[in-house]
Amino acid sequence: MRVVSTRGLKSPIGQTVIGVIMIAFGLFVALVLAGKQEKLQKRCTGETTGKIVSVSVHYDSDNNAEYSYRIEYEVNGKKITDESETSRSVSEGETYTVMYDPDKPDDHYVKEFSGSPKTIRYVGFGASGIGLIFAAVGIIRLMRGR
To answer: Is 5 exposed, middle or buried (0-12, 13-18, 19+ CB in 10 A)?
Structure first.
């Protein structure tokens, strides 16, 4: 009886599993996340200026900064405040373009921080393509008995 290791990329089973996970993740990004971003951008046709009113910085285990910020903007005389995060450096007092849904002004995105749905799709499909290669190589290696 032959024991097959599932550890690492050297194992055909490991390659196949990692490939399938990458395919699933890539498709989720390309279809779900890009679709949500696209719908939000289509709805948010109103434009105003938002001001960063507070910022806090957090560092992950790799010492990468993550900025939690509070942005305030006004629509039809109503002040709206929202909290969000970005990896971009932001400072209190800076202003940014806020795109909002005229029917629901609380639904918005900060234009300068928002990714293009097209770019998000490219990244997702790219990850799926790399995953497909991993999975195919793993399956071929399994069939050959390596």
So the answer is: exposed
3-state secondary structure of 86: strand
Whether pLDDT at 5 is above 90: no
Q: Please return the burial class of 62, using the count of CB atoms within 10 Å of its CB with bins 0-12, 13-18 and 19+.
A: exposed
Contact 134, 18 (CB under 8 A): yes
Query: pLDDT of 70-125, one tens digit each?
Result: 999 999 999 999 999 988 889 999 999 999 999 999 999 999 988 888 999 999 99
Q: Coil, strand or helix: which one is 112?
A: helix
Tokens of 54: 């507070």
| Helix, coil or strand: residue 84 | strand
> How, if at all, do strands 95-101 and 65-75 pair?
unpaired
Cα-based angle 79, 82, 87 (whole degrees, multiple of 5): 140
Q: Residue 32, Cβ neighbours under 10 Å: how many? A: 11
